[in-house]
Amino acid sequence: MSMIRCAAAFAAACLSLAPPAPASAQSAARPRPVAITVDADRVEGTLPPVWRFFGADEPNYATMKDGRKLLVELGKLRTGDVFFRAHNLLNTGDGTASFKWGSTNVYTETRDGKPVYDWTHVDRIIDTYLARGVRPYLQIGFMPEAMSSAPPGTPYQHGWRPGFDYKNIISGWAYPPKSYDKWRTLVYEWTRHNVARYGRAEVERWYFEVWNEANGYYWQAPREDFYKLHDYAVDGVRRALPTARVGGPDSAGAGGQFMDDFLRHMTSGTNYATGRIGTPTDFLAFHAKGQPSFVNGHVRMGISTHLKEVDRGFVKVTAIPALAAKPVVIGESDPEGCAACPGPENAYRNGTMYSSYTAASFARIWELAVRRQVNLDGVLSWSFEFEDQPWFAGYRQLASNGVALPVLNVFRLFAQLGPERLHAVSDAQVPLDRIVAEGVRGAADIGTIATRLADGRTAVLVWHYHDDDVAGPPAAIRLTVRGRQGGTATILRVDDAHGNAFAAWKRMGAPLNPDATQYAALEAASVMQPQPVVLKAGANGAAVATFDLPRQGVALVMLAER
């Protein structure tokens, strides 16, 4: 039985699908000693805030009650510098949201084929973003019904639902335009409208990219036709706003031959829209996903698969010298490939497996970017929310019914990291080459990132991750911070007992419809509460703190300014 069907029938029954290890089981095991050393005076480079990108298939959820609420929380992470990408922004329809679908009805035609533009729905979506401190990573797609070249009789809106074959999402929206000139004009008019409505300076801050994963199911035509679609769209954007930030192609995975040919076309091919050589390119984008499985009654994550694809993408986008220094966005970067899809292998999503995976995977993506000398600008988590669905139904999301999941708290911890990366070593951190090659199948990965904030504080992120969602001993952390003798410190935690509404819901008995009092309790349980940490004097003027970190736990220790 899928997580989704199980939640709809009786939510508590789902708890058998690989729940987080109970705290009692972990505390009974002997803690694993872990030494972490941070040098507060040794800056090793910068730590770009690449985590500030999010996205979803369903654009209309953004304007609904829980969507609006969640956007407020995303906007707070880094006001004005958080970006949201959504599919289906140009689809024909009435704006009603459903799984892997959305619409805005921006383009229709009169009987004699003249364009009719209506920006009402798409304006409402973008207005909702901007009012909450979020900006568009604007995906130009998919194909309006009146413009689609789909074969006669092809349905336009798909009827996919959780549990159906993923290929069933493909319908009339996935085809090229009947007229590329009309396609370019639509993009031009939309961009011109955005500049008029929001102002040139605002729209210059957005990202513009064309379509989604045109090397996969989402594009029902040869790849050269996509390059043509891309050229015409970029030309339409730049005609309306010559300074717009344009890029792509947001390929499925590193893109294979599709990406190789696309990059050559961008740099040395004849532009289909202009006849000139090359296509304007301000950033490059590809996708990378993991591959969890269900093994011996529990979820086993596939972080190695995820990181290998990241590395392949980095190698590709730096292979052509003219593009090697361009900013790179991993336009979807997730533990697996379908946020709405059910299955026991996806039962990691509600609890601390997802949050600890997020900390461990982002840490390695930062490392790989440094190794490959990639100008990494963004890592986009394809995770938002699903409106009016059963509590903790098992979707890949940041909140359930408006209540934050543990994974959202990890992004809140990321937001408190500083711009300067400090030298930090954990004697239990799995080396980069090993985790890329093998994942975490032996000893747990207990790692760290340390940063210095502009106000002089030191922030130390620590995670305790394993691919297997089974009980394990906690880590007994001894954190030594050189150059930070004295002062005060606090700790924020995400684990079974902290910042975890899912665990609180289970302790309530997994109510199908929490009442107002229970809802308030769940919201309170989702909030991380800072706790004081005792700093002791260590050798050579260092500060020392000790604390336990449960398996799948993530913590941020913040040391006050010296």
Which CATH architecture of the largest domain would you pick?
Alpha-Beta Barrel
Q: How do the strands line up in the largest sheet?
A: 21-20-24-18-17-16-1-19-23-22
Please, what is the CATH homologous superfamily of the largest domain?
Glycosidases
Structural class: alpha/beta
Can you count the beta strands?
Answer: 24
Query: How far apart lie the N and C ends?
Result: 55 Å
Counting DSSP H or I runs of 4 or more residues, the number of helices is 14
Top CATH class of the largest domain: Alpha Beta
Give the percentage of residues in beta strands: 15-25%
Global outline: globular
The largest sheet is: 10 strands, mixed
Integer count of domains: 2
- Oligomeric state of the chains present here: single chain
- Any idea of the CATH topology of the largest domain? TIM Barrel
Q: What is the mean predicted local confidence, pLDDT? A: 94
- Poorly predicted segments: 1-27
Q: What share of the residues lie within helices?
A: 25-40%
Family: Belongs to the glycosyl hydrolase 39 family.
Domain Glycosyl hydrolases family 39 N-terminal catalytic: 35-526
Keywords: Glycosidase, Hydrolase, Signal
Signal peptide: 1-25
Task: Describe the secondary-structure layout.
Blueprint: H1 3-10, H2 23-28, E1 32-46, E2 53-56, H3 65-77, E3 82-86, E4 107-109, E5 115-117, H4 120-131, E6 134-140, H5 180-198, H6 200-203, E7 207-210, H7 223-240, E8 245-251, H8 256-268, E9 283-289, E10 293-295, E11 298-300, H9 303-317, E12 328-334, H10 352-371, E13 376-381, E14 399-400, E15 403-404, H11 406-414, E16 420-426, H12 432-438, E17 445-452, E18 458-465, E19 475-482, E20 489-494, H13 501-507, H14 516-526, E21 531-533, E22 536-537, E23 543-549, E24 554-559
Parallel strand pairs: 1-19, 2-3, 2-13, 3-6, 6-7, 7-8, 8-9, 9-12, 12-13
Antiparallel strand pairs: 1-16, 4-5, 10-11, 14-15, 16-17, 17-18, 18-24, 19-23, 20-21, 20-24, 22-23
Organism: Sphingomonas carotinifaciens
Signal peptide: 1-25
Active site: 213
